[in-house]
Amino acid sequence: xxxxxxxxxxxxxxxxxxxxxxxxxxxxxxxxxxxxxxxxxxxxxxxxxxxxxxxxxxxxxxxxxxxxxxxxxxxxxxxxxxxxxxxxxxxxxxxxxx
Length: 98
Known about the structure:
By secondary structure, the protein is an alpha+beta fold. It is 37% helix and 35% strand. The chain has 3 helices and 5 strands. The chain has a 5-stranded mixed beta sheet. A hairpin with a 3-residue loop joins strand 4 (60-70) and strand 5 (74-83). The longest helix has 16 residues, at 20-35. The protein is globular and about 35 Å long. The relative contact order is 0.22.
């Protein structure tokens, strides 16, 4: 299994998340990604190098954005998580500030 690191933004999101079932959905998605990082879809354009994974819960589409870095081992960095609404605008702002 690959090491998973959370950005401050994603860590804050998961800390504030009250719905345990949704938290478990995200946890399952992160476990799947850590086993096979290619499971998500690779973005193009101004989000090149970022992967995304869809999490469906309670008729709502949630997104999980992550990138993979290769050092001595693979490290998956969870950049952002949230509902699809305005997700990519927030992701672009976040990437500009790193």
